[in-house]
Specification:
561 residues, mainly alpha, two-stranded parallel sheet, 17 helices, 1% strand, globular
């Protein structure tokens, strides 16, 4: 043992052990969230299909293009992901902590119903064509006040959920002093902590800028400040989507393949670094915008690249796990482990394909964050393609693969061979459709095809005519993706109500015996929250002060539909 390990050894703690099974009321809480997420994915996918078919002229413009684009973005990017994540985290906490006490359970249900009310208000406003402001709701686009109230309620609901989880964690620490909570619980708490800090930015722009503008209490809005507050939230949002997928990759996939977690300490450190590095980076989404000094853009671009560190740590840990398991099964050579993986198990295949998609997605993210390369792809369909293979594939496929074991666990049923086979088909069609669609988006984006642009007269121009075949590819890919969603929804219905009753395995892996002990300071929450806010203050205080002090005349709210 070297000096560093000896020092860390002094800080080690005993690791907590998950309980054998989760209780009925905990299962109902988690399943309620997952059920809403399944409905959201169906609505969002239908909006996405109609959007691409309208743009290619296959069907008439039944709904406005931007109306559908808003529904697609909010239902999939906000409602589906958030509800599934919170449901998954409740299940992981129930498995880690055992039964929830009554107070955090009541708060959790309060959060659920608050989010439902908010989501319904948002949906009604979009259907009424009074909230067609896309999922980014950029100023000076202005929606009906009820749209913003719905957003506020949805976010407040997530805060109730976060508080409930923090209280569950505190209850566990009170009852188990000196014990690390199981790894999935630590990761879950870190994920919700990131969410709460991130949503402070979007809450500020809605409550102090957009809602007062919509209500007529203010005549104008500061566009640059609003966009800065949005992207303070918008980039950590990406990690709010990714971190639950990472939890599955770190703790569930090793169990499914029959292996163990490579290192508990490495996994916790990666999540800690995601918390620290996710916030002071929002300006790399605003590299082409005026009003922000180049120095601060440069600083945040550099800080953006630091996120590569925990990403590579995650990749190393996962492929080390695969290799160790493969060698235990007799694999030889550098890549012999590839042949030993259980590709016939949807619980493995879906997240594994998601991991493979994340390799080009990560490379694309580096391009987007680089100032010069960003100038080539900014506001083109390249960005949309990047978004779809990141959240739409790496995250979505992992969530799909998770649902095939999580739903039967929560419903007291079993994953049958038929549903596993259907899950393999669903994961395959999703990957195939997304490959076609995202390829077309990336290539046409490099040819200058703008994103977020509905049917336009300039499509008949000779210079833009070459984009048309790519739009046809997007329509084909989108159709395949919708078929995949229909298979998914049927599978979830079957696993919820028709599959045989029984006890499905809740797969959570143990840590390798030879792994380093976990240091105590990873759970020094006061320290890491303080460091997080110091980094945020460093990256944002001066530029936001400049945006306020030197603000141009504000813009009046626009309703363009």
């Amino acid at each position: 043992m070297n000096d560093v390990s000896s020092k860390l050894k002094q800080w080690e703690m005993e690791r907590g052990v998950p309980v054998p099974s989760i209780g009925a009321k905990e299962a109902r809480l988690a399943y309620g969230h997952v059920l809403v997420s399944i409905l959201a994915v169906l609505i969002g996918a239908l909006a996405g299909l109609m959007q691409t078919l309208i743009r290619t002229g296959v069907i008439p413009e039944i709904f406005g293009y931007y109306q559908l684009l808003t529904a697609h973005g909010i239902m999939l990017g906000i409602v589906f992901t958030t509800m599934f994540i919170i449901g998954l985290l409740y299940a992981l906490l129930a498995k880690s902590f055992g039964r929830f006490e009554s107070f955090p359970t009541r708060v959790a249900w309060l959060g659920f119903w608050t989010m439902i009310i908010g989501a319904v208000m948002i949906t009604v406003m979009i259907l009424a064509n009074k909230g067609t402001v896309l999922y980014t709701f950029y100023a000076p686009l202005m929606a009906d006040p009820l749209f913003y109230v719905g957003l506020v309620l949805f976010v407040v609901g997530t805060w109730f959920s976060s508080f409930a989880m923090f209280r569950m964690y505190a209850d566990y620490k009170r009852d188990n002093p000196g014990v690390h909570p199981p790894l999935p619980a630590y990761m879950s708490i870190m994920t919700m902590l990131l969410w709460v800090i991130a949503t402070l930015g979007v809450a500020a722009t809605i409550l102090f800028q957009l809602l007062p503008l919509s209500l007529g209490w203010k005549d104008t809005v500061g566009i640059e400040l609003s966009r800065t507050l949005f992207w303070y939230f918008g980039h950590p949002l990406v990690y709010f989507w990714l971190m639950p997928a990472y939890i599955v990759w770190y703790t569930v996939v090793p169990k499914v393949i029959g292996g163990k977690i490579f290192s508990d300490a490495l996994a916790r450190m990666a999540f800690l670094l995601f918390l620290l590095f996710s916030f002071p980076v929002g300006f790399h989404h605003q590299l082409t915008e005026p009003g922000i000094e180049p120095f601060w853009k440069f600083v945040q671009v550099i800080l953006t690249f630091l996120v590569v560190i925990p990403s590579f740590m995650t990749a190393f840990s996962l492929f080390a796990t695969f290799e160790l398991r493969g060698r235990a099964l007799g694999a030889k050579g550098l890549f012999g482990w590839v042949k030993k993986m259980p590709y016939g198990d949807v619980r493995f295949l879906a997240p594994f394909v998601g991991m493979l998609f994340f390799i080009p997605a990560g490379a694309g993210g580096i391009i987007n964050a680089s100032h010069q390369l960003n100038a080539m792809v900014h506001n083109t369909l390249w960005v949309t393609g990047h978004f779809h293979i990141t959240v739409g594939t790496a995250v979505a496929l992992t969530f799909f693969g998770t649902a095939y074991w999580l739903v039967p666990v929560l419903r007291g049923r079993t994953l049958t061979k038929a549903m596993n086979k259907l899950g393999l088909i669903q994961a395959g069609t999703w990957a195939f459709g997304m490959a076609i669609m995202s390829y077309a988006m990336h290539i046409s984006g490099l040819n200058g095809n703008p994103r977020r642009t509905g049917p336009a007269t300039y499509f008949s121009d000779a210079l833009t005519r070459e984009w048309i075949p790519y739009h046809v590819m997007m329509a084909i890919g989108g159709t395949i993706l919708f078929i995949s969603v229909l298979i998914f929804v049927y599978s979830m219905f079957n696993l919820s109500f028709l599959a045989p009753k029984g006890e499905e395995e809740f797969p959570l892996a143990e840590t390798e015996e030879a792994a380093m002990d976990t240091p105590r300071y990873f759970e020094n929450w006061k320290l890491w929250i303080t460091v997080t806010f110091v980094l945020i203050a460093f990256a944002y205080t001066v530029p936001i002060w400049h945006l306020i002090e030197s603000a141009p005349p504000g813009a009046r709210g626009w309703v363009l539909w």
